[in-house]
Write a structure and sequence with these properties.
With 113 residues, the protein is mostly helical. It has 1 helix and no strands. The radius of gyration is 48 Å and the shape is rod-shaped.
Length: 113
């Protein structure tokens, strides 16, 4: 009877030791998974920050590009206005010169007659 109880107790002890070992192993595995999840969380946060930064930089670049385009368009318009003014001035100068030449020819004709 005693031997049987002792054998049963030894058997239970071995079962409990095995269960305890499995529990420790499971705890280690859970801890590793939790660490991996925490690392993934940090990586996701870093990726989110990088994405936000990239979007911000892209938005800023688009704004600069739009500003540069607007500035270039304004310069082109100003250059076109200046060219028009210069051409108009050149035309007036040419017309004035032609008129002076006509007047000079008429004066010369009158002086010869």
């Amino acid at each position: 009877q005693k031997q049987q109880a002792w054998t049963y107790a030894e058997s239970r002890k071995q079962e409990l030791t095995a269960a305890s070992t499995e529990l420790v192993s499971a705890q280690i595995q859970v801890q590793r998974q939790a660490s991996a999840l925490e690392e993934q969380g940090r990586e996701l946060e870093a990726a989110r920050i990088a994405r936000t930064s990239a979007l911000s930089a892209a938005t800023e670049a688009e704004a600069r590009l739009a500003s540069d385009r607007k500035g270039a368009k304004q310069r082109e318009e100003q250059d076109a206005r200046q060219r028009s003014l210069l051409l108009a001035e050149a035309l007036r100068t040419s017309q004035d010169a032609q008129e002076e030449a006509r007047s000079a020819r008429e004066e010369a004709r009158s002086a010869r007659e």
